[in-house]
Amino acid sequence: MKKSWLRSLLCTATLLITLCSCTASDYKLGNSYVYSIPYDKSVEEFSGISSPKCGKEIDQMDVSKMKKPNQIRLAYTGDPTEMALTWTTNSVSPVNHKEVVNYGLVETALNFTALSTSHQFRWHWDEETGKYLYTSGFIHESLMINLIPGRIHFYQINSNGESSPVLRFVAAPEAGSRAPLSFFHTADSGTFGTSVIITKTMMRRLEKKQDYHGTIHCGDISYADTYNKKKLYRAAQHVWDTWGQMAEPIASRMPYMVSPGNHELDEYESSLENGTIYAKRFIMPGNERYYSFGVGMVHFVCVNTDEDIDPTSTQGVWLDRTLAKINKQRNLWPWIVVFQHRPIYNSNKNHGNWTGTNNYTYDAWKEPWPIFEGWANHYEALLLKHKVDLVLTGHVHHYERTWPVRNRNKVTKSYENVASPVHITCGHGGKSLYQIVWDTDGQSTYGPHPPEFTAARDNKNWGHCELEFLDERTVRHTMFRMGESDVPVEDVIITKPLSDAGSVGFSVSLFVGCFGFVHRIIWI
Known about the structure:
With about 525 residues, this protein is of the alpha+beta class. The protein has helices spanning about 195-210, 235-250, 260-265, 275-280, 315-325, 380-385, 500, and strands at about 50, 55, 70-75, 85-90, 100-105, 110-115, 115-120, 120-125, 130-135, 140-145, 150-160, 160-165, 165-170, 180-185, 215, 255-260, 290-295, 300, 335-340, 390-395, 400, 405, 410, 420-425, 455-460, 465-470, 475-480, 490-495, 510, 520-524. The strands form 8 sheets. It has a 7-stranded mixed β-sheet, with helices on one face. Strands 16-15-14-26-27-28 form a 6-stranded mixed β-sheet, with helices on one face. Helix 1 (about 195-210) runs parallel beside helix 2. The longest helix has 17 residues, at about 195-210.
């Protein structure tokens, strides 16, 4: 079972497979941490960027040369006293050494150690060359435990005889906490010049605010299947490594939570990855395709849009039960946020509203597109039944925010005391934008009049979104264009009725002690 690291915290199970060990250094330690991605370039210095075209991929990384820990990513587990961690190296430590993470509350006193498990995979045996097309680096997975909820922690990876810089993150506040929370929201990224500049914009935002509580990435992550704009017979795995390194400045500082998209799961659109590579590279909770986790006063629920969600399906039953369970503790989690890849509310003519099947075809695709049941007639009913507040999506390469909406046409054009979900598509994270309808001579993807449910949309600019949960009734949504980190172009306050916000008795939690022995005293 892939999640064996959760059951093997006290041992290191490292696969000893010989790889070329190179000495090339891709970072420096300390304050001069240098990433191997050209974040200092301007738009003009990247090749081919001209809205709506994202240009060519950046130079791709050779993981066999990356001796130091790279592609570092944090992830929530659902327990505020834990933080999962993954990284990659080109080899492993000698048998008498271990791949470990040292961590603690003080940057200069990392007195606690988490061990790890390691795995490696090969991709596609090529009959012509007699070789595998790709051999991964060693992917390490670890779990930091006994964290103090809501506190800043520091960590350093020691692996393959090398050390990462000392990095920091904020552990999830405990359930019921009313501490404000901040999250990035992005999707449809890739490894293009636009992707790099958006990451740089997010890095600047991080510098201004210091600490975010996580990133929500709504699918279509690396686009390894379409390297150099060509649909590949087998996905180019080095693109995944490049994306992992590109995202590291964000993902090493906060949990990076992902939902799978069609370019990770669909047989054709993932170039036969079929979700296997997604499972090998990410360490999400649950079965990783759909799962939930709480962070302070917010409970996030990830669903998989490339899977059935009708009342008899495994995912449909799971979602109904999960949302019901969260609602029974709405005093702890007044906010419920669902995130997924494909949007069910969309005004862009490319893709349309997700109803369980695609509205387009490929000549190379010989079989009928699958139909995933429940998206057209059951899913939204669950959102309404369980009073979901926000639905975050990607897939459509533009930005769109709806008014509070239900049942397609019941729209409330106000964000005060909302009683229906607000849907936010942040699909302008790097891939080419959807300005022109496919297979036309320039027809706009936007009609002359947007549908009633659309409050704002933009298919001309790349960017990222942010959410700030200010209290149990108030969330602030912002959208920043690529390269503009100071002032958002979209800035909206959304409030919910007090009756839907839940209430919790006055409580103060005092944590006494440190790691291993964590004591909580609660006054109510």
